[in-house]
From TrEMBL:
Organism of origin: Forsythia ovata
InterPro entries: Autophagy-rel_prot_27
Record protein name field: Autophagy-related protein 27
Keywords linked to the UniProt accession: Membrane, Signal, Transmembrane, Transmembrane helix
Pfam families: ATG27
Primary localization: membrane
Top-level taxon of the source organism: Eukaryota
Cell location: Membrane
Amino acid sequence: MKISSLLLNPQFLLVFTVTILHRVSSDSVLALCELSVRDHNKLYNYSLTSPLPKFPHGILSEDGFYKVAANGTVLWFQLCSTMIFNHDPPMCVGCKDCGGPSRCGMGCSALVSNQIDGYPVCTTLGRPSSMLIDVLDKKSPHTGIIVKMSNNGPQRNCSLSVTVICNSNGVQGPQTFETVGFCDYTTQLKHPSGCAKIISSHGKGLGWFGTFMVIIICLFGVYLLAGTIYRYFFLHIRGIDAIPNLEIWASLPHRVQGLFMSLVRRFRGPSHGYRSSYSPVNF
């Protein structure tokens, strides 16, 4: 088959376009799963999808989803990706915007099932494209992060906030969850991906005052060098006298000392035994 005929094939164009869009969507989601926070002289880098020695998929659940249930309510979610169900899929109605009845839960990143009139009804809580990441405690960035997903539904807006606690020893899945408001949920898990890679940077730089002083010193050095070269080659002045304004620089320490002593006398007052010019004198 020629390349030109292949490019004109509608089926090929459809597959090619879907592949490109999926690749772009995946790259954008991976970018959302990274966070860098600077605290004093340290830079905290989080990358939830970076492979770890015991977790090649990072924070992504190898089952394809995390699951937690309480009081008849079931919560499914996956971080940094849509969910995949090879077993134990959601069995609930109202899953149109999250994969449909045959692929329920596989079109979003968070789903909840509530018992309404005796039937389990699904509600989409989040999508990978809406994910936001922030540190758990700005004063202690190493403790972990918060991942928030949301979904703008036709009737109400829902969300799921997952607190990822730094735990370098292993993974502890979500044990329970809380409902905040009408359709907002929070849960917590522990994972090594919640631990940041810390980069230490010594010093905070010169700052504006330090930069200003460096500029002044450099200009002063250029002035001395240019003046010395001019006096040496054009005025034929040799030795230490080639330095411009040598008398001023030589008397500068004495002037500084005199200014310092004047300030000391002004703040301390006249010393013991010092007689003012206006003191009465007995003859």
